Amino acid sequence: MTLLFGLLGRGIGYTLSPYIHNTVFKLHNIDAEYQVLDIPEDELDHRIEDIFERFYGLNVTIPYKIKIIKYLDELTQEAEIVGAVNTIKTRNRRVGHNTDTIGIELSLRRNNVNIDGRRCLILGAGGAARAAAYVFHRNGAEKIVVCNRTRTRAEEMREHFKRRGIPIDVVEWERRNEVAGESEIIINCTPIGTLSEESPLDPDVFNREKTVIDMVYRPRYTKLLRDAAARGAKVVDGLTILIYQALEADRFWLNIDIRDDVFNAVEKVLEDLV
């Protein structure tokens, strides 16, 4: 029987996830298929049980990474600390996991980025931002600052981590360029730049002392990353993070090892799409 996997989100027609997972299934000779589940928010309540029944595993993206938790039986330690879920195993018990942390961490390692003792800025306060905060904290960041367009959401994130002994500062969105100038590590966890020439930051904030990470992966090299690279900053692209977090999801669902040859094969498939 073909195993069904899918991505649950809203307004996600741009996703590359089916290409990634279907490539992995093919490479490992697994009889499985990956689909996109674009579900309106007002329909989630009455459709979620059927989705859980039909799908062996799910990925979760905007706007459901935090909302989905109430439907689950259990969270992994990673997901509980982050407070957001992007991967679910549905058999027997519905277990929520967070693979964004692994995606970010492996991408930083691949690019030789050291977080220890650095001042970090996170743009955004959703599930990806929470994953970034946790990664920065457990890798020794000196300071973590969050800027989000809706301040209350950033404050909710701060309170979530405060209860877990992880200090985060919140700064008004209007001050993001000022804070970026003072930061050594910057990550964009907003959708700004997706399939557009927008950037959340002024180009003049970048220099050779900074590392800039973008969770946006279409285009692979966003205006934010191009601006940063042009001024000598090290950049980490969202496609690398996307692939690593997807491979971690496959490991969680099916015990598939994260291997360099699989990463390279998936990256080659995606090159023409971004």
Uncertain spans, ≥5 residues at pLDDT below 50? none
What is the CATH homology-level superfamily of the largest domain?
Answer: Leucine Dehydrogenase, chain A, domain 1
C-alpha termini separation: 33 Å
User: Given the helix and strand composition, which structural class is it?
Assistant: alpha/beta
Widest sheet: strand order?
Answer: 2-1-3-5-6-4
> How many strands?
12
The total count of helices amounts to 10
Q: What helical percentage do the residues reach? A: 25-40%
Radius of gyration over all CA atoms, rounded:
18 Å
Number of domains: 2
Return the CATH architecture of the largest domain.
Answer: 3-Layer(aba) Sandwich
Written as H for each helix and E for each strand, in order along the chain, the element string is: EHEHEEHEEHEHEHEHEEHEHH
Strand content: 15-25%
Tell me, what is the CATH class of the largest domain? Alpha Beta
How is the biggest beta sheet arranged? 6 strands, mixed
What's the rounded overall pLDDT mean? 96
Topology (SSEs and partners):
Elements: E1 3-9, H1 17-27, E2 32-38, H2 44-54, E3 57-60, E4 74-75, H3 77-82, E5 87-89, E6 95-97, H4 100-110, E7 119-123, H5 127-138, E8 143-148, H6 151-162, E9 169-172, H7 176-182, E10 185-188, E11 211-214, H8 223-230, E12 234-236, H9 238-254, H10 260-271
Parallel strand pairs: 1-2, 1-3, 4-6, 7-8, 7-10, 8-9, 10-11, 11-12
Antiparallel strand pairs: 3-5, 5-6
